[in-house]
Design brief:
heterodimer, A: 114 residues, mainly beta, 0% helix, B: 114 residues, six-stranded mixed beta sheet, globular
């Protein structure tokens, strides 16, 4: 793994609480992608961000979900008022500037909603 | 838009046997093609990628894949598998000229038995 760091690795929330997932990309990478993996499903694209900009959020649910990648600090995926259906593994990936054809993935954050 | 179909959700094989994991894609534009491997409770690791050039691509751990444009396929092969190859394998595509955003298949669970 090229060093994408995600935390927490495991998160348990009760329905109605907020979940915040953090992602620090590989040093020097300026592009961050978030994916969600449901049981028995592949990874589904959620959002693509560059520093301080959301480039493509076509996979983000319209409500309760938001993402940011500030100038300083990690990228944050925020889920408000979680429901059981939000239980999944959330993966962050990063890529360097320019087109290299590869995403570097973190080990994921596994959210369980009780 | 692109889509990826992995025809087999599970593939059991015996150690030292050959294996082929099938992947077909659909796209109205030219694409790049990837295979990723996911070990239990871990993130995704790139096995190999096709960007251009030779249609036979060699990757890590003895895997290779062949891009067949007429059949829109990118099947993954290994001539002799090991127990340690037990994992889930994902085929993915991204749009040429676009971002690194990947569209994934649902995955194939490869189980190598002694």
């Amino acid at each position: 793994n090229a060093g994408v760091m995600q935390n927490p690795r495991h998160l348990v929330r009760r329905r109605g609480q907020e979940a915040r997932l953090r992602c620090s990309p590989v040093k020097g990478h300026s592009h961050v992608y978030w994916y969600r993996q449901l049981p028995e499903e592949g990874l589904k694209f959620m959002v693509y961000l560059q520093k301080e900009n959301i480039i493509d959020e076509s996979g983000m649910p319209k409500e309760r979900f938001s993402a940011e990648f500030p100038k300083e600090g990690p990228s944050i995926l925020r889920i408000q008022q979680v429901v059981r259906g939000d239980s999944a593994a959330y993966f962050c990936a990063s890529s360097p500037p320019g087109r290299t054809g590869e995403l570097f993935f973190g080990e994921g954050s596994r959210l369980t909603v009780l | 838009a692109q889509s990826v179909t992995q025809l087999d959700s599970q593939v059991p094989v015996f150690e030292e046997a050959p294996v082929e994991l099938r992947c077909n894609y659909s796209s109205s534009v030219s694409v790049y093609l990837f295979w990723y491997v996911q070990y239990p409770n871990q993130g995704l690791q790139l096995l190999l990628k096709y960007l251009s050039g030779s249609t036979l691509v060699k990757g890590i751990n003895g895997f290779e894949a062949e891009f067949n444009k007429s059949q829109t396929s990118f099947h993954l092969r290994k001539p002799s598998v090991h127990i340690s190859d037990t994992a889930e394998y994902f085929c993915a595509v991204s749009q040429q000229g676009g971002s690194e955003k990947l569209v994934f298949g649902k995955g194939t669970k490869l189980t190598v038995n002694p």
